[in-house]
Design a protein that fits this description.
Number of strands: 0
Distance between the termini: 54 Å
Radius of gyration: 21 Å
Strand content: under 5%
Length: 240
């Protein structure tokens, strides 16, 4: 069964054999030097960032289910950013400095707010105060947002990610390939698979430390303080 350009304008003619080639051979969709791209994706994702830091921390606070929800939020956020690149979001941000600066400041403020929340929680734990998770009834930062919403917002308020996707992906798209959108889709899927694999590992790590931190509040407090300072550092980096 084949679909022709006559019926579906803008899409290449393909059949099942061609579809299998699409999955097996990256070069068939206009990708240049796929091994280098894959290695770059792995190193980029392994480099600590606010997304991975949040997943690891929330999993160690609330368990693997919260980590899964946070990972889902990041997956959706990254997918939206990639779709935005295809639809021209990078061009819009590049041509409108005020829009870019607004999103950048919003993202930095959100990171700083998260960092403040973790630092506040760390101080409470260090002092031995009860947190809301143990039933003291106060509104607490870590329960203010559902993990998926917090992670989704964290992903979407980083406008520099859009320019990263454009500049990074462009290096591995074959010049003159007739359907660059297919190439971009393939590269995006690979990145998402690697990202979700890494976040899954962080969820297991967080679950492993969950019971340990419940027994050792001082160690948990130190971790929370470090995470808070790192998030504020990410906020400062985003502003710069």
């Amino acid at each position: 069964m084949a679909f022709s350009d006559a019926n579906y304008k803008g899409f290449p003619e393909f059949n099942y054999d061609g579809l299998m080639d699409w999955f097996i051979s990256p070069s068939s969709v206009g990708i240049v030097d796929f091994p280098t791209y894959l290695l770059g994706v792995i190193f980029t994702i392994l480099f600590p960032g606010p997304n991975s830091l949040y997943v690891l921390t929330i999993a160690s606070i609330k368990g693997w289910r919260a980590g899964v929800w946070a990972s889902l939020g990041i997956f959706i956020g990254d997918a939206i950013l990639m779709i935005g690149v295809v639809l021209g979001a990078a061009t819009l941000l590049n041509s409108s400095p005020s829009t870019f600066n607004f999103i950048r400041i919003l993202g930095a403020a959100y990171l700083a707010w998260m960092g403040y929340g973790f630092i506040r929680d760390g101080i409470e734990r260090w002092r031995g105060a009860k947190v809301v998770a143990t039933g003291d009834g106060r509104a607490h930062y870590l329960n203010a947002l559902h993990p998926s919403i917090a992670a989704l917002t964290l992903s979407l308020t980083n406008p520099k990610a859009i320019f990263f996707f454009v500049s990074f992906f462009a290096q591995f798209i074959q010049p003159g390939y007739a359907y660059p959108m297919y190439t971009f889709l393939y590269l995006a899927l690979v990145l998402q698979v690697v990202s979700m694999s890494y976040l899954t590992g962080l969820i297991f790590a967080g679950q492993f430390f969950l019971s340990y931190f419940k027994k050792h509040q001082r160690y948990a407090a130190a971790l929370w303080l470090i995470v808070g300072m790192l998030l504020i550092g990410f906020a400062a980096t985003l502003l710069l």
